[in-house]
Write a structure and sequence with these properties.
CATH class of the largest domain: Alpha Beta
Strand order of the largest sheet: 3-2-1-4-5
Number of domains: 2
CATH architecture of the largest domain: 2-Layer Sandwich
CATH superfamily of the largest domain: ATPase, nucleotide binding domain
Helix content: 25-40%
Order of helices and strands: EEEHEHEHEEEHEHHEHH
Distance between the termini: 54 Å
Strand content: 25-35%
Oligomer: single chain
Radius of gyration: 18 Å
Number of strands: 10
CATH topology of the largest domain: Nucleotidyltransferase, domain 5
Length: 230
């Protein structure tokens, strides 16, 4: 069973193909939000380089967010288009899961933090379990102060990862002592690994059932609401 993974929730475009043997091929590029122009050529290049045709794919996996609105929409629309054209099921996985999974061997609470812009971050909390990680605090969005308050409330050893953790590292450390990782971003590599485990359990859905995780209203809606209230 081969899975095509599509990840565009941040500034990076990441696509991968994987199966029971792990990640077979991975293509990643960061080109300043040019997701629409980059994604389909990236998939074509990945297929050619790995020697795998789209007709060999069994499931389409996609990052459903939270993340940057435009990138998420491009990834979801493209993933659904491929799934419908190829008549394949889909698996949607959170970008926060994708950041936490590579840290599954950490002996502390893993807190993926994604820069949500406007002085806010998306975050959740995970704990190591056999074979992976388990979410222990649901995804949230808010200013860094809210993240620090949540960390203080739990008062445990913490590893913060992601571009949000890196950007606001000083603010986090001012309020709570923890370890700050590098500038990690969600990747299609962990996406196909997590999706493959779910696919073996047949935990897939019809493309129309895949929904994005926004956590807050799109900017246009926020701006319109502000104008209406004034």
């Amino acid at each position: 069973m081969l899975i095509l993974g599509i990840e565009t929730a941040t500034e990076r475009v990441s696509v991968a193909i994987g199966g029971h043997e792990g990640v077979i091929g991975l293509f990643e590029v960061t080109k300043g939000r040019r997701h629409a122009e980059t994604l389909v050529p990236a998939i074509d290049s990945l297929c050619r380089q790995s020697g795998i045709g789209l007709d060999e794919i069994s499931v389409i996996a996609v990052d459903v967010g939270p993340g940057l609105f435009t990138g998420m929409r491009v990834g979801l629309a493209s993933a659904k288009a491929f799934a419908q054209a190829l008549r394949l099921p889909m698996i949607g996985i959170s970008s926060l899961d994708l950041l936490a999974f590579p840290c599954r061997h950490a002996d502390r609470v893993v807190v993926p933090v994604i820069d949500a812009r406007k002085g806010e971050v998306f975050y959740a909390m995970y704990r190591q379990v056999p074979g992976g990680v388990q979410q222990v605090v649901a995804p949230s969005v808010g200013p860094v102060e809210e993240l620090v308050a949540d960390l203080l409330a739990r008062s445990e050893d913490v590893l913060c990862v992601g571009d949000g953790a890196r950007r606001y590292g000083e603010e986090i450390l001012d309020g709570f002592h923890c370890e700050i990782g590098g500038d990690e971003r969600p990747s299609a590599g962990p996406l196909v690994q997590l999706a493959h485990a779910r696919a073996l359990r047949e935990e897939w859905v019809n493309p129309r059932e895949v929904e994005p995780i926004y956590l807050r209203a799109p900017d246009a809606q926020i701006n319109w609401s502000s104008r209406t209230s004034r």
